[in-house]
Amino acid sequence: MRVIDIGPDPSLAYRPDLDINKTKDKDDYRNFESGSLIDRVFNTYKLMHTNQTLDFVERKHSEWAGCTHKNMTMMDAIMSLDQMVDESDPDVDFPNSFHAFQTAEGIRQTHPDNEWFQLVGLIHDVGKAMALWGEHQWAVTGDTFPVGCKFQNSIVFRGNTFLDNPDEKNPKYNTEYGIYEPNCGLDKVFLSWGHDEYLYRVLKFNNCSIPEQGLYMIRFHSFYPWHTNGDYMHLCNDNDLRMLPWVQEFNKFDLYTKTTEMPDINKLTLYYQSLIDKYCPGTLKW
């Protein structure tokens, strides 16, 4: 994890050479083949795909799902991401707190009457705070994928990063269904451990009132093999398929709002604090 001493505009420390007037085509996002950040990204995924086993994921559920690590407000958690740059992301090299407001504002422009959707855009990556509390980035960031069954070819860097993962060679885990029943539902599937599942657990633990559609967006927004590539449908139940369009609608804003144009957070904080107060108020257990 990269943590540096930041000044009044933290983004400048991470993007000194970026052309703020440069626009980015949609086809340029999620480029896992080339670019200035590709070595960092590949190394993060190599560690993730080597170490994220079913046993590892079950241990992380036990370690984090009880929400015993911190007590803090949602806004404080968002602002803590000033200190964190996602080492798995080929599209950004600036703090995650800026991406939070970029995503929320993108949703607000298109869905001005849907407050909970805007809030989801703001908080969706807050689970990455685990990286500030001692967790490895390869167990926090990046695309998620099921463990306990066959690793599908749509997973990023699938061809050469799972060679040292023991589950790849385990006959109990390397078949199409592995430990799962057909159409068991994603709620019964263990995904690789990361910020999606962690924030979902935090929101449920603290009885936050974000509706089911928003919780699906948070829990599965990094599950690209499913919502973008159409894999793992054999594990989905009817409710997963009903929720899928919501996750896909969210993904448009999560992905395509990543630009070098930074929002004025000071002007936006009051509005988004009102949404936090409505749906996940007060001090939360993390």
* Main sheet properties: 2 strands, antiparallel
Mean pLDDT score: 86
Distance between the termini: 20 Å
Q: What are the low-pLDDT stretches, counting only 5+ consecutive residues below 50?
A: 1-24
Strand content: under 5%
**Number of strand elements:** 2
Radius of gyration: 18 Å
Order of strands, main sheet, comes to: 1-2
**SSE pattern:** HHHEHHHHHHHHHE
Helix content: 40-55%
Tell me, briefly, the overall form: globular
DSSP helical segment count:
12
Structural class: mainly alpha
Q: What does this protein structure show overall?
A:
Helices cover 43% and strands 2% of the residues. The protein is mostly helical and 286 residues long. It has a two-stranded antiparallel ribbon. Helix 5 (96-110) packs across helix 11, helix 6 runs parallel beside helix 9 (212-220) and helix 6 crosses helix 12 (265-279).
Question: Brief overview, please?
Answer:
By secondary structure, this protein is mostly helical. It contains twelve helices and two strands, in the order αααβαααααααααβ.
Q: Could you outline the blueprint of secondary structure elements for this entry?
A:
Blueprint: H1 10-14, H2 38-51, H3 54-64, E1 71-73, H4 74-80, H5 96-110, H6 115-123, H7 158-161, H8 195-205, H9 212-220, H10 224-227, H11 238-256, H12 265-279, E2 283-285
Antiparallel strand pairs: 1-2
List keywords for this structure.
single chain, 286 residues, mainly alpha, two-stranded antiparallel sheet, 2 strands, 43% helix, globular, disordered N terminus
